[in-house]
Amino acid sequence: MPNSTLRRRSSDAYKDRARAVARAASDRTVSYSSYLQLDKILNAQKPQSSVYGTEAHDEMMFIVVHQCYELWFKLIMHELDEVIHIFMQPAVLEENIAVALRHLQRITEILKVMVDTFAIMETMTPPNFLKFRDYINPASGFQSWQFRLFENRLGLDQSKRVAYQSKKYSEFLPEDVRPLVEGSETEPSLFSCLEKWLERMPFLRNGNWNFVSRMRDQIQEQQDIDQEVVPQELEGELGTALAAKLLKENNALLGMLDPENHEEMVRKGMKRLSFRATMAALMIQLYSEEPVFQLPGTLMDTVVKIDNLFTAWRYRHALMVHRMLGTKIGTGGSSGHDYLRVAADRSRIFGDFFNISSYLIPDEIVPELPEEVRSNLTFAMDRIAGSPPPLV
Predict the structure, then answer these.
(1) Given pLDDT bands bounded at 50, 70 and 90, which one contains residue 75?
(2) What secondary structure does DSSP assign to 157-206, as a single string?
(3) Which helix (H) or strand (E) holds 210?
(4) pTM of the entire structure?
(5) Is the dihedral of CA 68, 70, 73, 77 positive or negative?
(6) pLDDT at 388 over 80
(7) What pLDDT score does 391 carry?
(8) Alpha carbons 29 and 163: distance in angstroms, whole number
(9) In this structure, how many other beta carbons lie within 10 angstroms of the beta carbon of residue 203?
(10) What percent of the chain lies above the pLDDT cut of 90?
């Protein structure tokens, strides 16, 4: 359980803080170096080329960059665990959505740095990599347990993993961390927590309001208008072809709004997000200007950015390996560039969030919210009548 950033307000909480500050003030031994454990960090680079031959200059850079990646993964997990903790709660308050969003935005910034860091690695030429490559075999990024933990915490579908040597990925990890990584496969992930959170959204049905039914009605109305107006405005084969194209698109959209069709696609592995969660995400997108939906909308956009950046990191890694090794086998025994490229293609986690745009319809026919629903989508302060009282 992470050390939660959820607020704890009370005089007792402040007393605890005051006592802790007093204890820290009495300890005068801490310094910049000791606080950051610089002796350990700066002495943690052991170039293998210097052990077995002449030290290769670029190996130091190679080690430091990979150590930085592992430190960034550690911080990402620190942030992600807190987000999962927040969304595991039975009810997620507005203020806690804002807290979770800040953590997720921090992860996006970290991933941007990680992607850009490949520019440092790419200053190394293939011949200079070859000077120390044979000394580090069979060490490989394939053995990074934090990387695998990150995948699982995000919610990677285990059936999408690219198999290597017909073995489970965890068999290549250090034995002492295998239980942790394998256990994370069945623990709550960001994907599963967001799915449950979206499923709990109460605005899909309210009295006579039924979002899905109203969407179907509006699409049917759009379809009728298209079939009437298009042939009038565009005569001949072009008009007939356009009308047929619009009819096909609208029928496909109506099919996507069918819960049975959706769940069948989930069973076949074509979708992951449940129908109710998908409809909630769609409603948030269509009515993103409503106050209550602004934070959830930004949060979903941020999750998509994380998936994009993580995929970009994978692709950048695959391209660098291709440049350094060509078609050779990687140091870990994997098929190098080909393996990494296929893994990147199959490891998208939030594809259903990307696909919400498939359900969007023109603003002109977005169902108008009834007042009883709209009033619940505004902040409380917007509903307070009258002039505010004086402050003093």
Answers:
(1) very high
(2) -GGGSPPBTTB-GGGGS-GGGHHHHHHTTTS--HHHHHHHHHHT-TTSEE
(3) strand 209-210
(4) 0.88
(5) negative
(6) no
(7) 56
(8) 51
(9) 19
(10) 65
